[in-house]
Amino acid sequence: MTNYFNIKTKLKDSGDEWFSQPTCDEYIHSHLRKYQSEVRSYKLIEKFNETHKAGPIHVPRLIKHGYCCIELKSGALIEGVFLALEYLPFVKNKKLNDISGIIRKLESIGIHHNDLKKRNMCVDEKGRTFIYDFGEAVVDSDSLPSSSETEKTLVGELKDHKIE
């Protein structure tokens, strides 16, 4: 589960001068943008998968997302947005498969992951490669040029990688 906490109140109450108000606002805005990118990405992929049963994009299922506020026994409040994703058991020593195909499918629905790396992918017992962590994603096909060069680099780096 990803959780983006609202730290503004904590910082204000603690009197930390090193973290100025504009910086704090930028930090919170950045985390909200990441949250929105993740939710939009998972929802677009879900819609894609409904109509492409033979060749879906494998991601954990988005179970729940939203805003929460938790009061601790101490009286402190923790508030923020959250994502609850399906648990993915992954298998060790399996090769990542069809990374270029995953990238093409994502781009076909306007998602540019922008953070594909080994730790954002796993392989299940059937050998299917799953990707996750869409916090850095850009969800708009017109906002970025074609990433075929990026795809070639990623495929070259990851084609022989095994999950350990």
Automatic annotation (TrEMBL):
<dbReference type="GO" id="GO:0004672">
    <property type="term" value="F:protein kinase activity"/>
</dbReference>
<dbReference type="InterPro" id="IPR011009">
    <property type="entry name" value="Kinase-like_dom_sf"/>
</dbReference>
<feature type="domain" description="Protein kinase">
    <location>
        <begin position="1"/>
        <end position="164"/>
    </location>
</feature>
<dbReference type="InterPro" id="IPR008271">
    <property type="entry name" value="Ser/Thr_kinase_AS"/>
</dbReference>
<feature type="region of interest" description="Disordered">
    <location>
        <begin position="141"/>
        <end position="164"/>
    </location>
</feature>
<dbReference type="InterPro" id="IPR000719">
    <property type="entry name" value="Prot_kinase_dom"/>
</dbReference>
<feature type="compositionally biased region" description="Basic and acidic residues">
    <location>
        <begin position="149"/>
        <end position="164"/>
    </location>
</feature>
<protein>
    <submittedName>
        <fullName>Unnamed protein product</fullName>
    </submittedName>
</protein>
<dbReference type="GO" id="GO:0005524">
    <property type="term" value="F:ATP binding"/>
</dbReference>
